[in-house]
Design a protein that fits this description.
Radius of gyration of chain B: 24 Å
Distance between the termini of chain B: 68 Å
Structural class of chain B: mainly alpha
Strand content of chain B: under 5%
Order of helices and strands of chain B: HHHH
Number of helices of chain B: 4
Oligomer: heterodimer
Shape of chain B: rod-shaped
Distance between the termini of chain A: 60 Å
Number of helices of chain A: 7
Chain lengths: 179, 90
């Protein structure tokens, strides 16, 4: 049984966790994918997506897993590899119109994200820490240099309001464009 | 907290389902009666989705850096060679 890892929020702790997981599980995943005709690039993509899902579900989501972390990561990777093979064989059930709509939405989201990253990086980092990494407001206040949990909370809502306003403005522009 | 921030907080409690069932019902009625509030709620929902995308993007960058470190740093050469040997054609 492997030891239970603590919640790791600072990037330096995450780096150590990812190195540890890479060394334990990546060779197993590579062996599996190589035996099935896959290449190193595919193994890398599959494993990195598995690490992301592991982080969201187990580290941040605090979901208890029945197996150890290596077995869990290998299991997700096998599933993702199967999905990749199915996709490459062209058995995707979505029609061309659905795919085009998804692509359009993705494109406008990426543009919006790029804008928010440049115009409000500090806000995005703070909101990410709270909503994605699930730090509590005391940790957010410490990490982002606020005197109290209360002032960090006020700032969090200000940031959220700014992003909401940007979303609204941009949506109006897209509507004007489409009209 | 100023009024507009309190409204943002209320919208959040509704979207993240942290308010009571009674408050949820009341808020839903307000959304129907007030199109401007409904518009704000939709934009705020989109904001959470963008924050998640941002979080994922940053995490992907961190993971890519770890990969580069493991495959470029001399300290990890045995690991790199072990992986590369798995893809060598016999």
């Amino acid at each position: 049984m492997e030891t239970k890892r603590p919640l790791c929020s600072p990037p330096s702790e995450r780096e150590q966790l990812f190195i540890h997981l890479y060394k334990k599980a990546f060779p197993v995943v590579c062996k599996y994918i190589s035996k099935r005709g896959g290449n190193m690039e595919q193994a890398k993509d599959v494993f990195q997506e598995a690490l992301l899902l592991y982080y969201e579900k187990v580290v941040v989501g605090r979901t208890e897993i029945a197996s150890n972390e290596t077995a869990y990561l290998v299991g997700i990777s096998k599933h993702l590899w199967f999905q990749l093979c199915t996709k490459e064989k062209g058995t995707c059930e979505l029609g061309h119109h659905d795919l085009a709509a998804i692509e359009d939405e993705k494109l406008s989201d990426n543009k919006l994200l790029a804008l928010l990253e440049t115009s409000g990086k500090k806000c995005m980092d703070m909101l990410k820490a709270f909503y994605y990494d699930k730090l509590n407001m005391v940790q957010v206040a410490e990490n982002f240099g606020y005197n109290s949990e209360r002032s960090a909370t006020v700032q969090k809502y200000k940031c959220l309001e700014n992003i909401r306003n940007t979303v609204n403005q941009k949506q109006l522009q897209y509507e004007d464009f489409l009209a | 907290m100023r009024t507009s921030l309190l409204e943002t907080k209320r919208i959040e409690e509704h979207i993240l389902h942290v308010s009571s069932p009674g408050e949820q019902l009341l808020f839903q009625a307000q959304l129907i009666l007030d199109p401007a509030l409904d518009e704000k709620a939709m934009a705020q929902q989109k904001a959470y989705s963008l924050i998640r995308s941002y979080g994922r993007k940053k995490l992907q960058e961190e993971i890519a850096l770890v990969h580069a470190q493991l495959f470029q740093s001399p300290q990890h050469t045995p690991f790199k060679e072990r992986i590369l040997s798995l893809f060598q054609k016999k």
